[in-house]
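Why do we care about 3D structure at all? Because function follows from shape, and shape follows, mostly, from sequence. That is the central idea of this module. The next example makes it concrete: a single protein chain, its amino acid sequence, and then its structure expressed as tokens.
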Amino acid sequence: MAAANKTADKTSRARLSAVIKSARDIMRKDAGLSGDLDRLPQLSWLLFLRAFDALEDNRELVEDDYRPAIEAPYRWRDWAGDTEMYGDALRDFVNGQLLPYLKGSLEEAAPRDKVLIDLFKDIHNRMLSGYLLGDLVRQLNEINFASSDDIHTMAYLYESILREVRDAAGDSGEFYTPRPVIRFAVKQSFLALGESILDPACGTGGFLVESLEALDDKADNTAARQQLQKDLRGIEKKPLPYLLCLMNLILHGVDKPTIVRNNALVQMTSELGHTSKVDVVLTNPPFGGEEETSVSERFSKGIRTKETAWLFLVAILDKLKPGGRCAIVLPNGVLFGDGAGARIKERLLRECDLHTIVRLPQGVFAPYTQIPANVLFFDKTGPTKETWFYQILPPEGRKGYSKTKPMRDEEFDECMTWWGGQKRERREENDHAWWVSIADIEAGGFNLDLTNPNSGEDLAHRRPQELIADLIAAEREILCLLEELGVDFEETK
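And the structure:
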């Protein structure tokens, strides 16, 4: 039986791969789509409607009080299979009726369906040819979302497409988290059913999907699976990643993704009640960005800064429940920052147990940036007494990473063995691991950018790219400090 299922999966994957390849070939012919950053959103919102229609079919069968979220004739089944609607007629229907309906005619929808309004308010049909659009729709009709095999396989294929758009986005300054880093952060967070899990910078949903897969086997009944899906929460500011995240979660079996489209710093500072707090935060906030003054002014003067990563760290401290925990990817600049940065780190160490900092290999976000990065793990259980550091090195014989040779999961194996399980027992110093007491951290002005004392590493042995990346990070931090001084001078006038 297992062999038969494996063969069926291969058949399904081959068939669906052919469908998606044909769909992408069709889009390449259309003059309105100039690249993957145009084609993937077009494919995603059409796939969303196709998958959503299948979910509605299922709801209609199982819900006694079923009310359609999308009324006829705007359901996928009404127009996508209409053989008479083709060419200009199809394009005009989509542009002039379907999308306006989805954007503006759902104001009376129940809260569970408000996601449609948020999703489609920035969606446009970019295909100019109604004939090519019709060909694309017919290709997507070949996907059977009623089949669990097709849904599973489609999720796999969609992840491969997302990797391509991440490559394209990297060229425009957005750096998506490598999947091995996500998997490592999720595993070492030791998630449990019933915990609320938030990614406030969820992008295309990598942390949320990995959390779902880590807990899915433990959810052994319908009620547990429904609760797990509700417990996965995300916030995303930009429309394209928001769309991709929704589609990604739907393809992984989440019927109603709990994803909010907003600036997370605005969202989190607006929700300060106990009921809005969460058990776990897993995230990689934007690096090196700057927030508008109206956003930074939401934070108290002593820690006010325009640096996005700093503000995310403060907002997360407020968002976590007592006893909650966080794994967050941060650049080196946050570790050695002074001024407001030092005050934020002091608060972190006073309120939370910053028990582990994993220093990622140089170039983990290559080829888009050489900025060094780290994963910080902390629990909101009381002040830090000591912080362990663990340095992950590239594989032997490798100096860095590239698109064709990215980071691999096994590079974290030694660290996970050293970790000591959920209670972090029997940790020992070695060539990669060392610890620093809170007294020494305070004496150093809360600088956490500490090198491995066991490696004998000095500047003479560091690669030029590493030194340049550190200098750039330092210059950015200096710029933030100067801006803060400028704000202070303005306020004292």
